[in-house]
Here is the input.
Amino acid sequence: VFLPIVGWPMVLGYRKALTDHFFAQTDRAMPEWRGRHVEHLWNGVRGIGVIQVYAFPVWVAFVIVLHRSEFTPGAATWIGAAICLLVPIFTNIVLPIAILAASQPLRGGPYLEPGTALALSTAFHVLIFLVPAGFVRVSATGRFRSAFRLDRTLPLIRRRFGDYLRAWWFGLWMNLPILPLVLFCPWLLFWAYVG
Here is the structure.
């Protein structure tokens, strides 16, 4: 999970292989790791790309608002960015944390008004709420670009909204309790995420 650059993408790629494996005719309970590292890595990088494309409008709005507030990135900003590039698992939580930090009276701030911070945070969470439905489309079609077919994902969410909310609810409860332990036993996060 924490292996720099490749760890988290491989986990994402393995999760895609696991989803595909559910529909395959095989005697194996889980997909194979051996000999598929590059495939898992590549699919994971594409998965991270999907997540970041969904979050991109919020990133753009955030940067524009920060720029207008005369925020100047310091060493901590650049170090944080480098850590996120090296350990991609953090990319999913950086934007909401950055929005929260920019709205606090820290280091010359706040750089965001409370209403702006709330709007950016809400937009981020609404877009991230759609990502699993996009990944369902990837699993159905085998093509990552189908994750962006909102004309297909939004009707799926609307038709099965209760099931979709339950999946989010159980997914959160499988993953959130593990976060405080992740530095000591990252494999728990792997299994919770696969779950």
Observations:
- The chain has a mean pLDDT of 86.
- The helical segments are 7-22, 37-68, 75-86, 91-102, 114-141, 150-159, 161-175, 187-194.
